[in-house]
Amino acid sequence: MNAIECIAGEGFMTKAHKVTTRTASRGVEESVQFATAGVRLAGGTVTEADKAATRRVLTGVSTAEQELAAFRQELGL
């Protein structure tokens, strides 16, 4: 019995739902290029450090929250 069946059996759910895993529609490098293009279209700039942080998040090395905290620390905020 999987976890959802167990929860449904305990009366916490009226109906079991199938859990699916979403897969990325883009590869890491394509996602970095897409995000970079969006920032540049908005008039911003993207550094190599920004791209490296994006790659770390996309590959699961770190979370967006960790990268933002590191950026804030770097800025002294």
Describe the structure.
By secondary structure, the protein is mainly alpha-helical. It has one domain (3-75). The chain is 57% helix and 0% strand. It is built from 4 helices and no strands. Helix 2 packs across helix 3 (48-58). It is flat, with a radius of gyration of 19 Å. Residues 12-20 have low confidence and may be disordered.
> Tell me, what's the shape?
flat
- Provide the residue-averaged pLDDT: 77
- The number of helical elements comes to 4
Spans of at least 5 consecutive residues whose pLDDT stays below 50 are: 12-20
Q: Please report the total strand number as a whole number.
A: 0
Kindly provide the radius of gyration, computed on alpha-carbon positions and rounded to a whole number of angstroms. 19 Å
- Helical proportion? 55-70%
Our measurement of the CA-to-CA distance between the termini, rounded to an integer number of angstroms, reads 49 Å
Can you summarize the main beta sheet?
none
Relative strand content: under 5%
Could you say how many structural domains there are in total?
A: 1
Give the SSE string. HHHH
Report the structural category.
mainly alpha
